What does this fold into?
Amino acid sequence: MKAQAITPPARATRTAMLSRRQISLLVLAAAVPLIAVLPLPDFWIAQLNYIGLYSLTCLGLVLLTGIGGLTSFGQAAFVGIGAYTTAWLTLNTGISPWLTLFIGLGITAASALVLALITLRMSGHYLPLATIAWGLSLYYLMGNIDALGKYDGLLGLNSLSFFGVDLGQGRGFFVLTWAIVLALAAALLNLLDSRAGRAIRSLSSGAHMAESMGISTFRYKVIIFLIAALFASVSGWLFAHFQRTVNPSAFGLKMGIEYLFMTVVGGVGHVWGALTGAALTKLLDDQLQVLLPRLIGTSGSYEVIVFGIALVMMLKYQPDGLWDFVARRLPHPQREVDWADAPALPESAKPAAGELLLDVRAVRKEFGGLVAVNDVSFQVRAGEIVGLIGPNGAGKSTTFNLVTGVLPLTSGAVAFRGQTISGRRSRAIARCGIARTFQHVKMIPDMTVLENVALGAHTRGNKGVLSAMTRVDRAEERSLFKEAQRQLERIGMGPWLHELAGNLPMGPQRLLEIARALCSDPALLLLDEPAAGLRHKEKLALIEVLRQLQREGMTILLVEHDMDLVMDVCERLVVMEFGTLLMEGTPREVQQSPEVRAAYLGTEH
Ligand code: ADP
Ligand code: MG
It folds into this structure.
């Protein structure tokens, strides 16, 4: 009876079921031709065309700002690049617009790349300011170039035609625009649910965790910046042939702000938020422009005032946008386990027991005048569990950060399996086979436990953004998820696979971090206070996990305050106090040392 209940669902049901995402995309895709043939007034088709054009840029902003955490006020400039490229080329050279689309994308990519390399290393408010700066300068550039018609722009473009059929400004254009919107929305949804997508979703929670998983956060920032710019450029291309004229006012800073406004109102963290925001703003804007002057009795741009107030209210009461309000009320579908028969990921050759694994040689870290780690040396051999202990502020976490490259050394060296690793970036060190957890758990709360743990296997896959968008990455994804599940089950987290990580109690959160670290196939595991915040039972389970890992040949360096746990599982202890190494020895020797007692109890000796 019981065995039957836990049998995984049969394959047939699995393939027959469509995910909620697939259903919503199919419904929308069916709606596009339907709307085109319905006898809707042309006015509404035009409205939908504008909404589609705005949605494209907003989709890019969802990825860049909502998911990646990089705020941009400058997207309108990329719309402008796409629009001006096609306008100038089609007017002056007669090239087909279907070709100028790609030339525009090329120019956009090149300029976005230059901007990205200059600005994306900036943090805090500097990046948004930089986006304002380029938004402004591109506007004036477009307005001052003679060949681009200065502030009057370029007039008399042809509308798009498709195999001789003029798409015009109405239904034909509507079908094209919305086919592109839905295709790019689908591509974005695919991307977010992939190896690259998990890396992108980790960007907004600080770089340390992602880099420690071997991810180049800068690379992914550049990638999402490029994608957002390219989406905007497509919108510009369509826009130019829709309006059949381009001028700088549509691509200035004001529009850049409006795109961000739309996306935030719609729900900057959700792909559907982009469409919601574009639709809501466009429709409200039009209604208010007619209604308000009638209500007030004089003409004027009152809608701007209403929008300003609405935005403030929105940010206060529904900061995550309208779509977020909807998304929270939708049931959270559970990911289907379709990786049971996926091939296992290859594993690296493990060091032989007793091999010198980690050699910490006189490492030193000064923070201004404070010497947090004072010429500390110790070694860890393969197969050992070594405890690094000491009172609060002794420099244990800092030592971890020095070993894993999270912080640069002031002096000293660290070698791993005979190679000097100090001086390398943390993601390079991670790729050597060192995995870690953090004293303060670092995870992505709105990803499931399984997805968080799969992030740990990032370096064991290689599928990129394009494979993800087109879904040709599925075979690798299944292997990554299979590995994530295996590691979670290895440490007793099997029942939590599909839970959102943010909903986990403290104990399972720490186990999630251990599973994520294990997922990288490490030779050495550094655990920073894994038992902190755990209840008694969870602690016993953790001890069991550590023992089991050791039996399986894992080497562990452990920072822990819980003396029972340390004495129980460690073969050797390294004791630190005020940044210096106080002593090294077996748990028994350490327990009997008067210096160590003094350090812990604060008694004079
Ligand atoms: P432990 O993990 O042993 O409790 P830490 O390594 O976190 O200790 O800290 C050691 C000392 O270094 C503490 O005095 C702490 O305040 C200081 N410290 C840690 N990180 C920084 C930092 N980024 N900047 C300045 N001081 C720091
Ligand atoms: Mg610490």
Summary: The chain is about 55% helix and 10% strand. Residues 24-250 form one domain. The CA atoms of residues 266 and 276 lie 5 Å apart. The pocket of magnesium ion (ligand 2) is lined by residues 396-397, 439 (CB under 6 Å).
